[in-house]
Amino acid sequence: MKIALIGYGKMGKMIEQIALDRGHEIVSIIDIDNQEDFDSEAFAQADVAIEFTNPTAAYDNYLRAFKHNVKVVSGSTGWMKEHGEDVRDLCENGGQTLFWASNFSIGVAIFSAVNRYLARIMNDFPQYDVSMEETHHVHKLDHPSGTAITLAEEIIGEIDRKERWEAAPLSSPEGDTIGITSFREGEVPGIHTIKYDSEADEIVITHSAHSRKGFALGAVLAAEYTKDHQGLLTISDMFKF
User: Fold this and answer.
1) Which residue out of 140, 162, 192, 207 is catalytically annotated?
2) What is the pLDDT of residue 86?
3) Residues of the chain falling short of pLDDT 70
4) Given 24, 71, 136, 192, which residue is catalytic?
5) How far apart are alpha carbons 207 and 227 in whole angstroms?
6) Quick check: is 140 catalytic?
7) Is the pTM of this model over 0.85?
8) At a CB cut-off of 8 Å and minimum separation 6, what does 92 contact?
9) If we measure between CA atoms, which residue out of 151, 81, 171 comes closest to residue 162?
10) Which end of the chain is more exposed for a tag (fewer CB within 10 A), N or C?
């Protein structure tokens, strides 16, 4: 498979190595200093572009890839509120393809399935209140993390008494709100903890990444999946938990 990389930081370099190890070809690498290469022949021949940049650049990167009908796999977060509907329309009605995930780790995909299952159980036990903590490296700009938001929205979808999430400390700590506390420490790849607390006891589930390698492998697996699929794709399309 021919892969283009959009963003060539630590994650981009790790994705490159894993893709090469799996027998793929890197045909184009685009970073902040060679944006004109979006219009190159090399980029246009890519089967899939893997994009890991930042919330301010992601949407424009999608548009520039779609201009050449290049499918995109992206782990950039923070753009959906402003541009989500546009991207959905381009994928559902405009013939473009985006595989987006807030987290590409296989372990997080499994953790997400456990999260939904536990929340489904907890819908019948109102004595338990739920909260979340997430910790990432000091270079991460957005908070709460995209993964934490995804996990919170999954809980909201399963627990009738929860209607929204809010970054802690809560401005209006009502019973219908899930509080998400964010920490930025050192070079932590990512820790997500969900707590259900009652007067009697506490139930805690945690996913802790040892390195970014799991995210990079997941992104390459997503590219392999995206090559043969179309539309707006997610982890739940690739993993049927």
Assistant:
1) 140
2) 95
3) none
4) 136
5) 29
6) yes
7) no
8) 231, 232
9) 151
10) C
